Amino acid sequence: MILQKIGNALERGVGGLEKAGSGIGEMLAQLGGNYAPPDLDLTNRQKRGLLGARLNDMTYGPGAGPKQTPDFLNNIRANNERQRRQDIINSPETASQLAAIADPAQRAMFQSMLDTGDVSGFQSGMYNANLESNSKNAMMAAAQNAGFDEVELAMMDGMTAEQVQAFLEDYYDKEEANKKTEFDQANVLRDEFNSRTEDFGERQDKFMQIKTFSEDPSAAGDIAMIFAYMKMLDPNSVVRESEYATAASAGPIVDARTRGLYNRLLTGTRLLPEQRADFMRRSEDLYRNSLKGYNKNVNSYTDLATNAGLDFSTQVMPNATPEFTEEALGLIDYSKIRNTDYEDSPDEVQRLNTQIFEMNIGRAQEVANVLNNPNSGSLDDFGFTTAKEAQDFLQIVIDAAEASGTSIPDFE
After folding, report:
1. Is the pTM of this model over 0.85?
2. What are the φ/ψ torsions at residue 3 (nearest 5 degrees)?
3. Do residues 287 and 207 touch, judged by C-beta distance below 8 A?
4. What digits encode the pLDDT tens for the residues 236-261?
5. Quick one: DSSP state of residue 314?
6. pLDDT score for 14
7. How far apart are CA 138 and CA 121, in angstroms?
8. What is residue 228's three-state secondary structure?
């Protein structure tokens, strides 16, 4: 909440910061500059705004708002692009190009492009148009205005108007082909990167759930927390939340202790605050290791993008920064977790037991049928290795029915 207040203040602009010179305003601008992407040259005010957005983004938990940094930077980029186009529209070169057009209808058409901000259409149209007056000079001016270097302009100066037009058409055709190649290469790298980091994305989601449940505990949250931890251990686990976990459904990576604790939670057992802190710590270790692997992939694909002439952060993966960074891990308040507990209301207890009952009753009836008629199937089909384990499962369903006020099933 403190970070959020500071961030909001910075984004609004704290009074006097602009006049602080080398004081706190300069210092905050320097801190914000550390987060500036290489394609942007920010003013001090923008750097302070960027710092504010970043501080807001570091706020987690129920009170956290949407991420602000991407929109903040994209707004600056959009403003820069608008200014670039406006500079072209207002430039003396553009005015001279318009003045060189003899045909009033053509001049009105190009003026309309500028009035609507279609700078690209204006620039490409200038060299394609069959200007009656000095077409070569008009195309040369358009090329200069588009950023052609002195060597290219000197080469075009020795061409005829027809040759200049052919040269420019060939140039823009190649530029479009290069853009398509870059687009295709970016797509390939993006698909590969997403494939390699898919598990990280799932682990990150589960880790953030665990953090939320550990800081704001409840009976349902305890179940969801251990369920999320099991999914962090084994993303391929097929067990569903509030469903009884067997060794087969939980997956081979989930240890028996964790699986047993999860199943006991279905019977109404509560986690102690120290246990939540312990699972939070284990989850952090898993996430930290996963984050290292993710960052290695980011570095690897940044190099691949650079070698292909692409910018990883803008053309391949604009949103590659993890939602929960290494810096954010250091802000987890384990003391708060160890000193926070809960007392569920009767309505919440009933709702949770209803959910547990409904999630497991169908499977329980099939298991009871096998226990009563061994020839009808095998307990192995349901992930149970012993009859006692299956009977313990049926008792959980019976207890959930009783606690939820549901008719108690007869499994005899």
Report:
1. no
2. -60, -40
3. yes
4. 888 788 787 777 777 678 888 888 88
5. I
6. 47
7. 15
8. helix
